[in-house]
Amino acid sequence: MSARPRRGPRGSRAPPLAPLCCFSAALGMLWSPASQAFNLDVDKLTVYSGPEGSYFGYAVDFHIPAARTASVLVGAPKANTSQPDIVEGGAVYYCPWPAEGSAQCRQIPFDNTNNRKIRVNGTKEPIEFKSNQWFGATVRAHNGKVVACAPLYHWRTLKPTPEKDPVGTCYVAIQNFSAYAEYSPCRNSNADPEGQGYCQAGFSLDFYKNGDLIVGGPGSFYWQGQVITASIADIIANYSFKDILRKLAGEKQTDVAPASYDDSYLGYSVAAGEFTGDSQQELVAGVPRGAQNFGYVSIINSTDMTFIQNFTGEQMASYFGYTVAVSDVNNDGMDDVLIGAPLFMEREFESSPREVGQVYLYLQESALVFRDPQVLAGTEVFGRFGSAVAHLGDLNQDGYNDIAIGAPFAGKDQRGKVLIYNGNKNGLNTKPSQILQGVWASQAVPSGFGFTLRGDSDIDKNDYPDLIVGAFGTGKVAVYRARPVVTVGAQLILQPVIINLENKTCLIPESVAPVACFSLKVCASVAGQNIANTIGLTAEVQLDTLKQKGAIKRTLFLDNHQSHLVFPLMIKGQKSPQCQDFIVYLRDETEFRDKLSPINISVNYSLDESTFQEGLEVKPILNYYRDNVVTEQAHILVDCGEDNMCIPDLKLSARPDKPQVIIGDENHLMLIINARNEGEGAYEAELFVLIPEEADYVGIERSNKALRPLSCEYKMDNVTRMVVCDLGNPMVAGTNFSLGLRFTVPRLEKTNMSINFDLQIRSSNKDNPDSNFVSLQINITAVAQVEIRGVSHPPQIVLPIQNWEPEEEPRKEEGVGPLVEHIYELHNIGPSTISDTLLEVGWPFSARDEFLLYIFHIQTLGPLRCQTNPDINPQDIKPAAPWEDTPELSAFLRNSTIPHLVRRRDVPQLEPHRQSPAKILNCTNIECLQISCAVGRLGGGESAVLKVRSRLWAKTFLQVNFKLQPNVTEYRVGQRCRAAHHPTVFSLQMQ
Ligand SMILES: [Ca+2]
Ligand SMILES: [Ca+2]
Ligand SMILES: [Ca+2]
Ligand SMILES: [Ca+2]
């Protein structure tokens, strides 16, 4: 073995081929899903079985060579074959559909031969080793062509000393299994681990849509791995049984990479999709141990095999890229990428991480631009959610492709599960519409139901694609067929809706007393892909459903005197509704008291199973995403005066609880609304409040006794957002109450002067149904509290300074005097943003033609633009090189919240000389230099900082023998002001 010790021979590491090892200690059922079943049929399953221990079901595919024929291909990589002297060479089975009795599946004779031999030094020895080669570990069919591979196929290599390199090999079958060819792309002179000797070609397998083959070889180049593509026609044309080292002209492959890419397993999974905005598909390949074991998936240019773009995993050793699938789940015409990371751990950094697995969906927004992934997380520890991800096609024919995800070790006894996720315009529904449960327990290895999935082919020609699930641990394969989806549009029409008890126009059979009544029409239409011409529904109508069991139902069917009725509804053809009419009457007024609460009438419907034909076909199913109950309400006319004409007079007024809202504030705002009915009863009276885009609805006020806590609902109608409150049904005459609706107004930045709430009460009465319209305008104000803070460094200076004399005519900054730095911070406490503010600082510059504090440099932070009058440094003295700020100063500059009074503790306080009170210099008695700074937009909580570097003109003070104590921390700071939309002038002066 030529492998260097570090790399080790193939057998000394966990082979990537073996199914990720099995955990017998699952932590039990952590998940009890509401088990729906949409829309795969779980009754008319086709189950194929293979020899025990053969791993039958490790790979599966549909084989649909022509429109009228369909079958299932099943790989059984540990099956024994008729090949002489080969042990567990592996096989691919052809399983006809529909299944034919007991002899269901038969081996496809891809290769009947023993190991080929060569003559070495006069003796014949095998040049290849087909025992335990895992033929059938991958199987793929495309338009009648079938490819299956044996990734652990070894060959001897051409070296003088025999070696066994697991190069892997594949076989192609065409023309209804009449012609076969072998394709072993890594069986070449580039042997050994550093070459392609450990390639394991065919570990993963797929087709481009043009029929070209994609072969993954994750072991090449010290397990860097590679992907190889070739055309089937070339493989066939080039094939020769004897010529074992043929090189394919049109073959393409990814190249060897630097050693840092070793052990990353490129080609562990492969798929094809269109991601560059043209029509030529790209290759997608999983690299689950790449990127320091975070795993990634590459999009690879199919023309030159260069790497275009990567998706990278988020957790080490999560095996991101273990599987990859391409589908367009949001039906925008652009392929999306799904990536499984079956070892992903939840709560990775907590004490009890849970290995649940995860699948990532990357929606393509435009060429090579993807949205942040939607994550579908597994729920069962060690369930290996995401071991398989399959594009299903549009399983329910709603226009969006659907996805199946396998969790092969989940569920009871690790029997495995498959979760179906329906696509929608935003991606995938986060809740599965169906969870298929593995039913086979297994002893030695988990049954692995869901380890292998294949969809997107219609095996029974019912226009709905079907799903194959492999369970290699028990040697079983199940074909789940999709049920046709029937979408029912149902309607209840009541006439009239408001019933006058005195208007007795119906006669009950065998009775002379007339009764009040109304007509009830039940209508339904059906729609669906390839559904029967006549669909039988069973409809059940319930009257007065709000009255609980035992309570008097106020309405009954005229026909049967019951409050409910079950009847068949046969619907012929699609789209046009079929209706059935009923008469419903009210009991005599003396039999019930409640005339106020509405009479709720509902119809629910189901498919009439008795109309289904018995046979092979799967039964249709109602659309899971439609409610199969429709409800309407009728009302008893009350409170309408002598004439029984109900004319309400609805009055509405509203006011806000504060006169204005403030930009930048949290702005809790309550509308206090008064609703009155000064006329007769108003039916289904509702208050509508349209919410301006700046505001959000919070809820109804409940703590204030004067305000009624009505039931209100937030609704959205297209882009219009509103609150709808139930004011009573009827809202009786004389009603007068107030309610409070709470809002926040967080989005005021772009609004000018005011925001508007529009309000109205509406009822279902015929006459005068609505109230006055109220448009409530609330003014917007900007209010900001601004403070100025400052610090001087040092806080005081004592002259003379030991061993230092000022220069007579200083040429350099250091010759002027001690450094005095001031920092002013303009801090906008908020809440509103301020702008167009002016910060002015009067700086004690000179007195009697002598300089006092001589400025060398002005520095700003934040939105400040400053100028001075007169100019600074009029003597043109050479400034010192700018030095680093002291830690305190830089902290102050960076973060204004560091209390600058700290400086007092840092500096020894000198006892002021009481006997000679210092003269205070300020802009009233000396010449000041004006620093004027225009302050730009300053949000609430933000600061602008002005930093002035000056020197005390020491000569001035020494000449007059003057002792200055500029205790600068005492200058007037903290001026407060309110800034509005007009400029505000701050003035700051030194004392
Ligand atoms: Ca492309
Ligand atoms: Ca898409
Ligand atoms: Ca769908
Ligand atoms: Ca089907």
UniProtKB/TrEMBL annotation:
<dbReference type="InterPro" id="IPR028994">
    <property type="entry name" value="Integrin_alpha_N"/>
</dbReference>
<dbReference type="InterPro" id="IPR048286">
    <property type="entry name" value="Integrin_alpha_Ig-like_3"/>
</dbReference>
<keyword id="KW-0675">Receptor</keyword>
<keyword id="KW-0325">Glycoprotein</keyword>
<dbReference type="InterPro" id="IPR048285">
    <property type="entry name" value="Integrin_alpha_Ig-like_2"/>
</dbReference>
<dbReference type="InterPro" id="IPR013519">
    <property type="entry name" value="Int_alpha_beta-p"/>
</dbReference>
<feature type="repeat" description="FG-GAP">
    <location>
        <begin position="41"/>
        <end position="104"/>
    </location>
</feature>
<keyword id="KW-0812">Transmembrane</keyword>
<dbReference type="Pfam" id="PF20806">
    <property type="entry name" value="Integrin_A_Ig_3"/>
</dbReference>
<dbReference type="GO" id="GO:0012505">
    <property type="term" value="C:endomembrane system"/>
</dbReference>
<feature type="repeat" description="FG-GAP">
    <location>
        <begin position="372"/>
        <end position="430"/>
    </location>
</feature>
<feature type="domain" description="Integrin alpha second immunoglobulin-like">
    <location>
        <begin position="640"/>
        <end position="780"/>
    </location>
</feature>
<protein>
    <submittedName>
        <fullName>Integrin alpha-8 isoform X2</fullName>
    </submittedName>
</protein>
<feature type="repeat" description="FG-GAP">
    <location>
        <begin position="187"/>
        <end position="239"/>
    </location>
</feature>
<feature type="repeat" description="FG-GAP">
    <location>
        <begin position="306"/>
        <end position="371"/>
    </location>
</feature>
<dbReference type="GO" id="GO:0007160">
    <property type="term" value="P:cell-matrix adhesion"/>
</dbReference>
<comment type="similarity">
    <text>Belongs to the integrin alpha chain family.</text>
</comment>
<dbReference type="InterPro" id="IPR013649">
    <property type="entry name" value="Integrin_alpha_Ig-like_1"/>
</dbReference>
<feature type="domain" description="Integrin alpha first immunoglubulin-like">
    <location>
        <begin position="482"/>
        <end position="638"/>
    </location>
</feature>
<keyword id="KW-0677">Repeat</keyword>
<dbReference type="Pfam" id="PF20805">
    <property type="entry name" value="Integrin_A_Ig_2"/>
</dbReference>
<keyword id="KW-1133">Transmembrane helix</keyword>
<dbReference type="InterPro" id="IPR032695">
    <property type="entry name" value="Integrin_dom_sf"/>
</dbReference>
<dbReference type="GO" id="GO:0098609">
    <property type="term" value="P:cell-cell adhesion"/>
</dbReference>
<keyword id="KW-0732">Signal</keyword>
<dbReference type="Pfam" id="PF01839">
    <property type="entry name" value="FG-GAP"/>
</dbReference>
<dbReference type="GO" id="GO:0033627">
    <property type="term" value="P:cell adhesion mediated by integrin"/>
</dbReference>
<keyword id="KW-0130">Cell adhesion</keyword>
<feature type="domain" description="Integrin alpha third immunoglobulin-like">
    <location>
        <begin position="786"/>
        <end position="959"/>
    </location>
</feature>
<dbReference type="GO" id="GO:0046872">
    <property type="term" value="F:metal ion binding"/>
</dbReference>
<feature type="repeat" description="FG-GAP">
    <location>
        <begin position="121"/>
        <end position="182"/>
    </location>
</feature>
<feature type="signal peptide">
    <location>
        <begin position="1"/>
        <end position="37"/>
    </location>
</feature>
<feature type="repeat" description="FG-GAP">
    <location>
        <begin position="434"/>
        <end position="497"/>
    </location>
</feature>
<dbReference type="GO" id="GO:0008305">
    <property type="term" value="C:integrin complex"/>
</dbReference>
<dbReference type="GO" id="GO:0007229">
    <property type="term" value="P:integrin-mediated signaling pathway"/>
</dbReference>
<dbReference type="Pfam" id="PF08441">
    <property type="entry name" value="Integrin_A_Ig_1"/>
</dbReference>
<dbReference type="GO" id="GO:0009897">
    <property type="term" value="C:external side of plasma membrane"/>
</dbReference>
<dbReference type="InterPro" id="IPR013517">
    <property type="entry name" value="FG-GAP"/>
</dbReference>
<keyword id="KW-0472">Membrane</keyword>
<dbReference type="GO" id="GO:0005178">
    <property type="term" value="F:integrin binding"/>
</dbReference>
<dbReference type="InterPro" id="IPR000413">
    <property type="entry name" value="Integrin_alpha"/>
</dbReference>
<keyword id="KW-0401">Integrin</keyword>
